[in-house]
Amino acid sequence: MSEHHNEHTHITPFKTHLLILGALIVLTIVTVAITWTNLGVWNTTAAMVIAGLKGTLVLFYFMHLKFDQKIYRVMVLLVLAVFAAVLILTFFDYLNR
Amino acid sequence: MPENTHGHPEPSYLEYQGKHKGLKAWIFSTDHKRIGLLYLYTILTFFGIGLLIGLLMKLELIAPGQTIMGPDTYNRFFTLHGVIMIFVVVIPGLPAVFGNFVMPIQIGAPDVAFPRLNLLSWWIYILGILLVLSSLLTGGGAPDTGWTFYAPYSFETGTNMLPAVLGAFTLGFSSILTGLNFIVTIHRMRAPGMSWFKMPLFPWALYGTGWIQLLATPVVGITLLMIVAERTLGIGFFDPDLGGDPILYQHLFWIYSHPAVYIMILPAMGAISEILPAFARKTIFGYRAIVISTLMIAFVGYFVWGHHMFTSGMSGTALYTFSLLTFIVAIPSAIKVFNWISTLHKASINVQTPFYWAISFIFVFMVGGLTGLILGSLATDVHVHDTAFVVGHFHYIVFGGTGFAFLGAMHYWFPKIYGRMYNARRANLGWLIFFIGFNALYSPMFYLGVAGMARRYYDYLPEFHSGNIISSIGAYVMATGLVIIVVNLILGARRGEKAEANPWGGKTLEWSVPSPPPLENFEKIPVVTREPYDYSA
Asked: So what's the pLDDT on residue B496?
């Protein structure tokens, strides 16, 4: 196979998984709690930042991005860049109406 | 014929006896070739249904006033025609049929990376079709919104939206899984020596397509679920009374559905890039330029969706940004056309049926592409938006592009798939009648659109009569050509002459295995040392 690498399997300790699970639960509670305070236009931003943080934790630990080859991180980043570009283009409409 | 370790010739995938027999040996097979054919037969069945609906609509439009159906039936017919043709036929189209059948062999692999997932994709596809069809038989009957399900009408109509929308949602999953499977297969299972730039262009096109399927399809999935939420819970995403925005629906829908056009056309371009060098008997001109333009189309294609919404009320900044980006995406498409033409320059062309399909593809694709620029320009789009012009442009690209490439690919890979040949004279006659009928059907729409005939109406003003007569007659001429083509292929598959392993003198790996190929394609995985279209030897 043209791209055959010597791959080793990384085994994440059980404790790390539990820690990440805990962090995700805490962040979910924060997402709910934050709705009790009115942040005005920053409401959505706060929710998105927390969701982004949770997504990153899942990607890096549960989906092993942290322990994988760099190329996968680059690929995920590219996908996020496309997503960001799509959002920005949509706002070309909304911010200029 | 390759021999197994016991010295017996290995049976072809058609003869191979697994643990199941009869129909079960097909619908539970994880062999990429059998799955490709499952898709082929399903797609052809639904193409037939979609075509029949289209023919009935053309009959309705043969004269002004009500001819054979009223406005409500017509509205449901064009919705069903669109949903079936887009979600069931052209989106899976070339990737699911020829991608499955040919791509693993072209890259020197025994199968795709996830054969079971591949079979699951087909089953999910069937489930999606059943859901769409259930809308016909339950509730308020087939939806009448058009295949785009535009808000706010889609959550106000009394017709049966939910099954159709959930069906399209389910079909999306099948598409995502196929895309994922192909990306992994191409990354991980290329034969030794097949570096990225030694890979044939059809797998390259499927690679670009796979990324669009993987990244864009979830957007339409969520959008369709939003319609469901809107109809059942009245949330108000798209309802201005509740703080929503109907144009947001159009953004979300086209963020997927425009890249979806490239899901349809990229594999078509890939197939044409395979056919042309085989019949020009020389290497493709500008291999790397074609690869880069494939990736560019896949990438830039994400950012042009707004050109479907020029008259919807977007901001001026968004309008000219999307218009500019639309013009940019025309560049890689044109690069491909120039490369194909240059491949033919000074070639000693072997004129056979697949070649006719390939050159007629270039013609109809150019007509579709150039009329697309008229729609991509802000000023001219205002005049022809929502007219028959759009219908003409769309069918030249989607039916002309994907359809011609599909039929070209069918005639090209047919001997490999069935191990038999079709009758070339009948195939050429079918192509000629189809080509004449196709142009008679769709070219009057450009004139009708510029003259002001709106699309999606069962009726029109008397001054549009002559154009519609030509178009309707063209539809039936085209269908006649198609009947000749399909009958000829069925006869060929059943009792055509036995085909050689490489009847066209192709250089890619699928022509190095027997016709039809054995179960795991290669006796021994090949080592690739040459360029994919090396005709010098």
From this structure: 96
